[in-house]
Amino acid sequence: MKIALVTGASSGIGEAICNELKANGYKVYGIGRNSGEIICDLKDTKSLHVKIKKFLKTTNINLLVNCAGVGVFTPHEELNIEQIETLIDVNLKAPIILTNLCLRSLKKTKGHIINVASIEATRHSKFSALYTATKSGLRDFSLTLFEELRKAEVRVTNINPDITKSNFFDKLQFEPSYKKEDTFLLPQNIAKTLLHVIESPLVITDITVRAQKFEITKK
To answer: If you classify domain 3-218 with CATH, what class do you get?
Structure first.
């Protein structure tokens, strides 16, 4: 049985990915702050290091999915230091650390790393400077790491979802326009894309998933 390690597994895209993987024969270990097989706050890098190292002593993984993410969309001068640190820690620092910890295991299994970035990693939107910086960093990390790991036969894929109906928008000032179904994605769409990526005989290094139309609603 193949083993997957997934962040952000408790809700939204991460939860959908876990369900899709389980339905296709994977044993899934979720990392979450309050729930999951490995309880850990991704901002606590020391605890993350200790718990993942302990986990990997007895388990080799085939798939690492860095899916956890947080967003703030506001003028940059209105952000506080805690918000800045949280986005950098969760969206960029944690995936880099987790990848570092898991690489020896993934080399043994000739596994796959999938980073879930964002459509914002491919464009420059107003009030998205910090979020875009973290997701662009994650995307560039993925694309560069692929070049490093080609000879080791470890695959690396970056997925850029467009606006997706999930709890990501619970604390934001806007959300998808749910009145029109062709203006947003569902978490299951991203999960199906991930399955396509891992089943492909070729390496898909970067893929963007979008709805046909685009519309948001201000709260």
So the answer is: alpha beta
Contact (Cβ atoms closer than 8 angstroms) between residue 121 and residue 143:
no
- Could you tell me whether strands 174-176 and 216-218 are parallel, antiparallel, or unpaired per DSSP bridges? antiparallel
Structure tokens, 54? 């302990």
- For residue 3, give the nearest of 36, 30, 28 by alpha carbon: 28
Q: What is the pLDDT of residues 46-64, one digit of tens each?
A: 999 999 999 999 999 999 9
pLDDT at 219 over 80: no
CA distance 193 to 172: 26
Q: For the chain, what are the domain ranges?
A: 3-218
| DSSP three-state, residue 152 | coil
> Rounded distance, CA 137 to CA 140, Å?
5
Report pTM: 0.94
CA distances from 185 to 2, 116, 163, 197, 208 (A): 28, 14, 6, 17, 12
